[in-house]
# Entry
Amino acid sequence: PCPSFHFMCSECTGVYVSSVMGDLDSSYPPKCCMCRAEIPEASFERQLDAPSQARLALFKAQRSLKPGETMCKCADCEFFEIRDDDPIIWFCEGCDEGECLVCHKRLDPGATIDHRVHLEVCASL
# Structure
């Protein structure tokens, strides 16, 4: 419920959560549709399934970036990290997959590709 104790039925709650998650940029933080007060984060997050919780965590982390910070997100797993440097090549600590953050080429850590050559080419772009 919101701070004014407005409640929704389970069907309306599902529709509301889908609506908020469908447009996080303009709908987050969620607000009560009756009084427009912010709904407590814990109340909202309890309604989310695991993929939606992961997506919300990523959104909140991106929104909280400070100037000079970059978010690196793995395309294969849910791992992400916030960096204060400007990496060109990044390897996921969760699954070891790599990516060039300039050309977005996937980089296999076990491949024979010379990452230094790739780095020189993409750094000049």
About this structure: The mean pLDDT is 85.
